[in-house]
Amino acid sequence: MDNSRTPSTDFIDPDDLDTNTSNNAHFAQVLEQGIGRRGMLKGGLGGALAAMIAPVAAVSLAGCGGDDDVVVSPPAPPVAPTETLLGFAAVARTLADTNTVPVGYTARVILACGDPMAGGVPAYKNDGTDTNYAQRVGDCHDGIQYFGLSATGTRDDNSSNRALLAMNHEYITPVVLHVAGPSARPRPASETDIEVDCHGVSINEVAKDAAGLFQAVATSSFNRRITGSTEIQLSGPARGNALFVTKFSTDGTKTRGTLNNCGNGKTPWGTLLTTEENWSGYYARAAGDQALRSAKLNASFARYGRSVTATAAASSRYGWETAGSDDKYARWNTSVTGTSTDGSDDYRHEWFCQGFMVEIDPYNATSTVKKRTGMGRFAHENSAFGLPQSGKPLAVYMGCDSQNEYVYKWVSAASWNPADANASDRMAIGDKYLDSGKLYVAKFNADGTGQWIELTITNPAIAGAAFGFTDQAEMYIHTRIAADAAGATKMDRPEWVDVHPTTGELYITMTNNSNRSATPTGTQTSVDAANPRAYADIRGGRLPALVGNVNGHIVRFKDANPEATSFTWDVYLFGAEASSDPTYINLSGLNNDNDFSSPDGLAFTKSTGLCWIQTDDGAYVDVTNCMLLASVPGTLGDGETKTLNYGTVNVTTRVGKKPTASTLKRFYVGPYDCEVTGLCETPDGKTIFINVQHPGEGTAAADLADPSKYTSQWPSNVGYGAGKRPRSATVVITKNNGQRVGT
Ligand code: FEO
Ligand code: CA
Ligand code: CA
Question: What predicted TM-score, i.e. pTM, was given to this entire model?
Fold first, then answer.
């Protein structure tokens, strides 16, 4: 997504909004801002240029039939690859509107937005006339996970031939979903139904054909859509809370829909954990509604981005509440409209039912879906389980992706029993490990250590917060406010986290942060040891300049055990353009074969131990489309300390060992105007699946009649599907000689 465009509101991914006004973690008071590259200045001139450039929001344009009689053989231990890791030649940066893979590799498209997922569903015409998206692949593909199936259709974690691909549909590219683009408000019901159904999650069976190529099985009884209107149980410690009472659920135990599903994760017992990221903006809130709410609830609305005043309403992202009086549209207005005292006659509380981690059993298309409220309510990016240890609690790591938000950890109350990995009632195992436990938030210290601070109202800092928490269940609903009180460290937009399959160290991307500064004013947060960079990138003269941590970084940390309350950390890698200043910006010494900006997706493949890094960038997209890199990471502390001199104040950070040609290479570049996100592999490591989100999102509605004006025609231009409108889709990548991917 190219920040040079002026986005319409429909295309703004509000990832980078900053609603964190707490005073946490301003522990470096610095006087001068280092200045970035491509026409970059630094040192003494920094303050002058910074003063000329108003802070620019780094707008990210973004995104039945199960068999419960499962016999699961234990997963085969990974076999050390005999191939040379990163043996391929790095692909070059490119603006080509295609899949660019290394020589010797092949990329194929499957499961594009709109593809049928049930028998009898018409083929996708891709001209804006298609309907019935509740039985089609959704839009804006994001996180993806592989759930193996045996030849007889039972769960088989070792199968590399047949599987269920469970993937998120984060949001929509409205311009391509309707004949002439989206209509103005009030929105037509027909368009609204399409847009709600394009959200959520899809479970898709895929199987190898006679030629050994993975194909979607559109008629599979496993195929399932969970959309923005699917009934979902509210589980865990906040179930039944007064803030979950709606006209739809007068006892506060259920809700409808999962929204803005970004990254995801896979549990050790074979279920999907999907996440609700930028859900807040989907809801309208009327001007004057603040007068009908408690000060406490207004504070929570503010902290999650839904403030109103007597004269200013909060406008919804897509205007679904304007589509009519039917209950399915009225629910998108989270204002007091009824006369009840408890909210049982309206949707004033609907907004509180979103923002959770959501568990789905992909192997059972009729299974109940549950929101795990104990894991907190925030802008969930994804989840990663620490390596399970028999007899120890399970740890689940999670980021909250907005500017200056936090990193969290869930620790189960129950100790891990390896037999649970193969239980037939998988959602019951979820109840066991994900409904009872402790939630922690991270504080990163300057000395390379950190603390996990438990979010509990027995913590005096939380109990004594001005917000006035009254019970623990309520704390899970206003998680960010509790984390503020706990003194968590504000980070540069925590995105995907994953665990190294052998060292157990955690890697978490900090994608970028335009609200980080060495000379903070207003809501800006000061540079610190774990978020040490703030500079300006004038992008070869393409104004407006980008400021703050423009290119992002990847933090690495390690817990001694799952329930540890302290950790150690360093910065594995700093994103940068290869030609940028090595003293302030290109701290990891990236070159033309491996430079990147705005790391977002991150996943390890167990077969090879490779770490895959994906970008969702707006800073470097004048030079290259978003990409996927493969890396062989080292270990925490393998680098050095590095002091950044911002005038009279220094910030000392910890930089991982600089990558080499044998430890970091660009592997794939996606089509124009896309984000590359989500990654999973077959157990044999010979196939990876990645997602391409919103190619061509910058296409204007006025240009729909002329495909030559589309900013992307992918994937039709690589031979996939009807019509030329761009579509989000899954890409299957294999090595032509049959070896593992990434070798
Ligand atoms: Fe949906 Fe944080 O990316
Ligand atoms: Ca993301
Ligand atoms: Ca992102």
Answer: 0.92
